[in-house]
Amino acid sequence: MTFIPNIDYTLKHDICTGCGICIGACSFGAISMIVKQGRFLPQVDVRKCRNSKGCHRCYDACPGVGVDLVGLSNNNINKDDLIGSFHSCYVGNSTDQNLRYHAASGGMVSQLLIWLLENRMIDGALVSRFDKSNPLKVKSFIARSKEDILLSKSSKYAPVSFHDAVKELRSAQKGKYVVVGLPCHIHGFRKLEKIDKNISSKVVAHFALYCSASRTFNFTEYLMNERHIDIDKIDFLAYRDNGCLGGIVVKGPGVDFYEDYQSYSHPLRSIFIPRRCLLCIDHFGELGDLSFGDIHVGPYLSDKVGVNSIISRNQEWDSLLNQAVEDGVISLKVENVDRIKDSQPSAKMKKGRNARFIFLLNRIKMVTPVYDYKINKVTFLDIVKYAMNRLMQFIGRHRKIWFVIPLIKSKVVIK
Known about the structure:
Blueprint: H1 8-12, H2 21-25, E1 31-36, E2 39-44, H3 57-61, H4 69-72, E3 78-80, E4 84-86, E5 88-94, H5 97-102, H6 108-118, E6 124-131, E7 134-143, H7 146-151, H8 163-171, E8 177-181, H9 183-195, H10 197-200, E9 203-209, H11 217-226, E10 236-241, E11 247-252, E12 255-260, H12 261-265, E13 290-293, E14 308-312, H13 315-326, E15 330-334, H14 337-342, H15 345-363, H16 380-397, H17 405-408
Parallel strand pairs: 6-8, 8-9, 9-13
Antiparallel strand pairs: 1-2, 3-4, 5-14, 5-15, 6-7, 10-11, 11-12, 13-14
């Protein structure tokens, strides 16, 4: 019999995404979540773990070890190497102008969830919000009202673990729930649903958010320190507020700060990214029923209020999108798939550079995530890029050498 490990294997080889879904997969309460080196990481209590008895549910649900993007995707007539399997592509926004302005891009995710809840099509949504006890930390929960959804609106440029929400879902009575998360979160839920009927019977849809890479908690800590903002005085933090791309908003006693998104985020994008993000090839959330993101390209560059691109991946949710249009809660228009791709240059990087990173590490016998997407070439430039990214990440993990960051961070021209 082939031995299958627990998620200590994922941690040992530094391929953990920090998604927290392994905690929901464990039937024995053997896994907890800690914050280490600016990330959420699981830890296993060997006294409770039953891996030696043949249990490997945490490993089976782990997205860190990889996922079959093609095998688990919807079987649609439209297929694209970058976007994956899809039904239609759109551009749209919430018709609630206040929500549209204060949610990242166009407020589509929040608006659709509110509409679904108010029409009793779902009983809740697994989302994330800032922790009430610590505005720099992010907490997952099940939103069951419009007020809950509004608490979760906008982007979180910080680690998000779904261990709280998935435990809440497991104990919930029968109902219909939507999972909203990054591609790695969706990968984990889709794998968990294959082995857990209790979870699969409750999840009716997955809303995926485009993702170029996550950020560690150190990212926000560095930002606040560089801008001389006392972390202990922060009452409110939003990474993407006040318009389409928007910017970071920080409020508290004696604190009222704003800075454009591109200005604060882009110069630091390589420094506070977890290593596992260098080995992810899914930008568009290929396993979602609907995928959402920015479309800061072409005619949409002039939009300062908020606009989303949306990829529908099956007929059911495509029809519900158009029903929401008929109910007047969102606006929507068909968009060309090439424009959607052009708006997300990181997608090519993930299916290209990151896939070559995986190939490179495999050649030197290092453990990597396994996807049903193959590439069989690597260049010397890829080796240099991987080494440079790892150097940047080393700096981001060690506060004592943060003094070099102003010397190495890139300059960004605001458009």
